[in-house]
Amino acid sequence: MRFREKTPSKSFINLTPLVDMLFIILLFFLVTSTFIDQPNIQLELPTTKHTPTSKVDEQVLNISRDGRLFFQNEPVERKVLIQVLKKAFSQQTEKTLVLRVDKNVPYGLVIDVMDAAKGAGLKKIVAPTIVDPEKQP
């Protein structure tokens, strides 16, 4: 009786399932991530406890900490704000302005800007905030 000698087989680890799983995890993180285009204007938005943030980002007016106005990331003087808003919203039926204001801006300035927006014929002003998870009940 003759016994054949078994040649040791080379074992290897198949990496295909590992690569597939890494690809799926990467895809999951890419799909669930949100990318928000924020202008280079440094604002510290106030936080809220119950109100979610707005997702409207069409016509944005920013008021920086030092009181400067930026409409669509372009500086605007307070004297010509009504004319700029009228021109920007002249062709739109949905007249909604997103007003992003630093939390340290004086309240009087915010009211002046809101009054100018109403004077330009805007129907709705949205003020986005940041929801603070620590303040939620």
From TrEMBL:
It is a single-pass membrane protein; Single-pass type II membrane protein. One of its GO terms (molecular function) is transmembrane transporter activity. GO terms for cellular component: plasma membrane. Pfam families: ExbD. GO terms for biological process: protein transport. The chain crosses the membrane at residues 12-36. It is found in: Cell membrane. InterPro entries: ExbD (IPR003400). Keywords: Cell membrane, Membrane, Protein transport, Transmembrane, Transmembrane helix, Transport. Its main location: membrane. Belongs to the ExbD/TolR family. This is Biopolymer transport protein ExbD/TolR. The gene is ExbD.
